[in-house]
Amino acid sequence: MMPRKLMTLITVIAASTIAAPAFAEEGQSADFNKADALYKKLKLKEAEAAFREIVRKEPDNARAHQRLGAILGAMGEEDTAILETKQSIKLDPKYFLSHIILGQLYANQGKMDQALEEFKTAVSLKPTSLRATLDLGFAYAQNGKLDEAIATYKKAAEIDSKDPRPHINMGVLMAQQNKFQDAIKAEEEAIRLDGQCVEAHVNLGNIYGESGNPERAIDSFREAIRIAPNHPNAHSGLGWMLSKQGDWKGAQAEQRKALKYQPNFSPAHRRLAQALAESGNNTEATKEFLEALKWSPKDVTARVEYAQFLEKQGKKADAITEYKKALEINPNSKIAQEGINKLSKTQ
Fold first, then answer.
1. Which of 80, 119, 243, 260 is found 20 to 30 A from 341 (Cα to Cα)?
2. Half-sphere exposure of 1 (CA within 13 A, CB side)
3. pLDDT tier at 3 (50, 70, 90 boundaries)?
4. Tens digit of each residue's pLDDT (9 = 90 or more) over 312-329
5. Domains in the chain and their CATH numbers?
6. Could you tell me the CA-to-CA distances from 247 to 46, 99, 314 in Å, in that order?
């Protein structure tokens, strides 16, 4: 499957990964169907070779170009995949799946404006496609159009009233807008549809945590851990809430569990650093802050928290440096600007 390079909002919101369609194509040759069977079994190398041969024999076969593009995308050869998918669209501009694949390829390259246009086209060609509608909602969200994204996810929920994903993603976006009660209702609906949906439980924990209800947040994170004991987000979220309650030992234990399951999970390193600092272990806290920044150098929160940590230790010049780095990443960071202003006056 194609590796996800896309940023998450709270826990999980992303374009669907490039995969073989669940339906058979009519009017295709036996060779096409054999190649498609390989693709559906994720035998990508064999499927690539088979579809290359079909394209060689049938250069005007739009579906063959589409499949080859999707396979190349799943193998990480995105530039070539884009060329094949564009050729498919040139041959058959009304085939919605080619626009979905091209949108996903653009999304994985960070070209979100172009991805948005392709997903719009896909939905206009097939308004009943859940896959296209979910991806359109994702693209709206990534382009900062949260109202449009939420409206699109509502349409997705109408297309398939039993799928929890539209509600999961609506909850994420509503929380971004500080509409916490609406966000909670959305995640609870996802859980009603699928009680074992760990992402919804983690999101619910995050929402309760952000809205100042640590007890309910802890319950949600513990339920997520019950469902998926190795889930790093769930352990890190629980540790975050234990920190809020002053349980630094418990917080450290949960962050270490998160890092055991995902060593490069930057938020867990950052939260562990905070818990260590509160416990007076500044040496280990420094190491964890640096680990967080190693894995996510553009994490503004980590930069600001590290700057605040340095400031408390009297390292004003180093703190200013970190605040400035945070401002370079996000020029609108009020905390970083206030930190610079305060320290500059005392130097």
1. 243
2. 8
3. very low
4. 999 999 999 999 999 999
5. 162-229 (1.25.40.10)
6. 54, 50, 26
